[in-house]
Amino acid sequence: MKKITLFFLLAFSLNGFSQTRSIVFLDQQIENFVSQNQSSVNSQLEKFKKDRTVESQWVCYIDQVNINNGGSINDDALMHIFPDSTIILGVTTTGDIVHTWNHAGGTMIDPTFMPDAWLNYNSNYVLDSIAFLYAYTRHTDNTVVDTIHIELIKSIDNQLYTMTSGGQEEYQDILFDSINHKTVSSNVITSWDIPLTEADSSLEDAGGLVGIKTIAIATPYSNFTQGARIGAMFSFKPGYSWNISDSLAGKNAFSLLTSEENGDNTDAVWLGDHNCSYILTDDVYYSTDTLGWNGYYLPTWTWTTPFDWEHHYVFFKLTADNVGINETSNLGGSLSVYPNPVIENATLKYITNHNSNVNFYVYDVTGAKVMGLRNGIQNSGSHEMNMNLSALSNGLYTIEMETSIGKSIQKIVVVH
Questions:
Q1: What angle do CA 55, 412, 401 make, to 5 degrees?
Q2: 238 and 338, same structural domain?
Q3: Which is nearest to 114 in space by CA: 73, 54, 68?
Q4: Which of 16, 89, 207, 286 is the most buried if burial means most Cβ atoms within 10 Å?
């Protein structure tokens, strides 16, 4: 069904999207951030550019496209995500009310088809972490806790699909259950719920400029075979109630950072659809689509040429399995951390295999050392200590235990 509806879909989307393109957002913080605050985007991307080694690398399709173009694309936009179409997104230039119409977003990547291929792209690999760039504005009181729901999407060969002839590469279908309003479970490896609080807000100043921030989470999943695709899907769960008269201008709003691959008002051109981002529009969410897309997330390239939300800034930390980190190496001892995620205080339980000086270091996702603790000489055996992590921002960190003959490593997530 989908094969014969592409051209109709494009015509349909042109009409629908011309309306949404003319929206005057009630929350100008979200509408105007790119032209006024591109430096905030660039500062976040620098974190990942510093961590590009041969064997282990942060992989993001649109970031690599941007790097290969000298960092000159800058056609970034924010893609709103909201669980239903009740709340008001904005008004058109003619005064018509527009409700939220996009309900999820995600990305699939193929490590073998990247603009900046790492040298071990033909190896089996381990997925260490996922990170994403976002904007999050808050207008409720600080007791409200929202949630980002993240799903790790698996590679499924029998869901690969080619939309058109003439060299178009395959993309992977991601199935959506419109009855229960969630991704079909057979597509999901696992999922996480990440709380969002005042500390995660990206509002930077009184003038309304929105800064871009990063959330990274540990995803200790291995055994991805050579050429297997990997993906992540994101949805927003507000911690507040709302009704049809409410506007996002008065509530908390979440958006993923996204960009156009080939510049403003152009189609994506690089390597077909191996690396594909997705959206979840009203008609698919409510199963009212008449063009063959009910039950599927929409690939972004099925929309019209001026569509802003072409590729989302989602990063995957991939490590070739021949050099993968053993997070609980027993050479110098072993380390475990609980609770994990950590809210404020972490308990470190560790075993040393010999008498040795024992030091602990905490690293962020860029590899920068953010904390250190020298624990002195410890006898061999079991030990326990507390570490206060309240000074750290929300995100993914690595705690390293260093002894005289080896190291043990444990990933943690800090969520205040």
A1: 75
A2: no
A3: 68
A4: 89
pLDDT for 226 equals 74
**DSSP calls for 142-153:** TT--EEEEEEEE
Whether residue 325 contacts residue 409, with contact meaning beta carbons closer than 8 Å, is answered with: yes
Q: Does the structure show a pLDDT above 80 at 360?
A: yes
Same domain, 97 and 117: yes
Examine the domain organization and report whether 229 and 373 are in the same domain: no
Burial class (CB in 10 A: 0-12, 13-18, 19+), 416: middle
Tell the burial category of 54 from Cβ atoms under 10 Å away from its Cβ (0-12, 13-18, 19+): exposed
Domain boundary among 276, 298, 322: 322
Whether the upstream peptide bond of residue 220 has omega within 30° of 0, thus cis, is no
CATH code where residue 373 lies: 2.60.40.1930
List Cα–Cα distances, 158 to 62, 142, 177, in angstroms.
26, 46, 18
Compute the distance between CA of residue 119 and CA of residue 59 in angstroms, rounded to an integer.
12
Omega before 115 within 30 of 0, i.e. cis:
no
Q: Look up the pTM and report it.
A: 0.69
Assess whether 236 and 342 both reside in one domain: no
Alpha helices in 50-146 (DSSP H): 61-68
Quick one: 82 and 183 in the same domain? yes
Q: Is the dihedral of CA 26, 28, 29, 31 positive or negative?
A: positive
d(CA 289, CA 305): 21
Domain end position, chosen among 272, 294, 322: 322
Count up the domains in the chain and report the number: 2
pLDDT value at 265 more than 70: no
Domain span including residue 86: 2-322
Name 258's Cβ contacts closer than 8 Å, sequence gap at least 6.
62, 76, 77, 78, 79, 105, 277, 308, 309, 310, 311, 312, 313
**Rounded CA gap, 275 and 229, in Å?**
9
Digit-coded pLDDT (tens) for 155-210 = 888 888 876 544 456 788 999 999 999 999 999 998 999 999 888 887 655 555 56
